[in-house]
Amino acid sequence: MKDLTQEDILDSLKGKIYTQNYVTQPAIKGVKIVELKNHVSEDGDFYEIISFKHGKNEYFPDFEVTQINRSRMPPHSIKAWHLHFSQDEVWHIPPEIRLLVGLWDIRKASETKDVKMRFVLGGGTPHLIYIPKGIAHGSHNLSGETAGIIYFMNQKFNKAEPDEKRISWDILGTHFWLPQRD
Questions:
Q1: Confidence check: pLDDT of 174 > 70
Q2: CB 67 within 8 Å of CB 92
Q3: What is the number of domains present in the chain?
Q4: 96-127, pLDDT tens digit by residue?
Q5: Cα angle vertex 18, ends 15, 24, to 5°?
Q6: Looking only at Cα atoms, what is the longest distance across the chain?
Q7: How many CB atoms lie within 10 A of CB 132?
Q8: CA 82 → CA 36, 55, 133, 167, distances in Å?
Q9: Residue 98: inside a domain, yes or no?
Q10: 127-131 sheet: strands from edge to edge
């Protein structure tokens, strides 16, 4: 059978058909995403979040955990932008949530300065994501359920002098946090 051309498409759709972009977006230097292996069986599922040997972990061996926190987000909420000048983080995104993660390299001397990344994590697969200091980060809970994440920090939180800076959630436009539709 012969391939179609634009001339074979309804006139009312000409100029409205496009090709989705599948090109990998640029990655921010230092960010690392790890897909965890979820072992599913008849009686449930199991996965290892992170393991340690002599205080070091296999995915991020130079990252020393000093505090572990949990954060919950109500359905459809957006929590952004925040960043740290001294602290690195590792987020654990469980498989049962769908989280749109936004990252923005605002480090002036970085070779990936001003690069923005957005991607969905969770959705059936558990993930870890390493976020270095100087990377503004945030998330949008895409699900109709409360989303909970566990995050590991390499600096203990200090209420008197918090290493937590904020930027307005909509500085890149409200469209940044909206799901892209075809």
A1: yes
A2: no
A3: 1
A4: 999 999 999 999 999 999 999 999 999 999 99
A5: 155
A6: 72
A7: 21
A8: 25, 27, 10, 6
A9: yes
A10: 32-35, 127-131, 89-93, 147-153, 67-73
Beta-sheet pairing, 78-83 with 165-166? antiparallel
Q: What is the CATH number of the domain that holds 132?
A: 2.60.120.10
176, part of any domain: no
Is residue 143 a part of any domain in this protein?
yes
pTM score:
0.86
Identity of the amino acid at 40: V
Return the SS3 of 177: helix
CA 133 to each of CA 23, 59, 85, 137: distance values in angstroms, whole numbers, following the listed order: 27, 18, 5, 10
| Residue 169, CA distances (Å) to 13, 94, 176 in order | 37, 24, 9
Given a cut of 70, is residue 182 above it in pLDDT? Answer: no
HSE, side-chain direction, 13 A CA sphere, residue 141: 19
**Residue 155: CA count within 13 A, CB half-sphere:** 15
pLDDT at 23 > cutoff 80: no
β-bridge pairing 147-153 and 89-93: antiparallel
Structural domain harbouring 64: 30-49+58-168
**7 belongs to a structural domain:** no
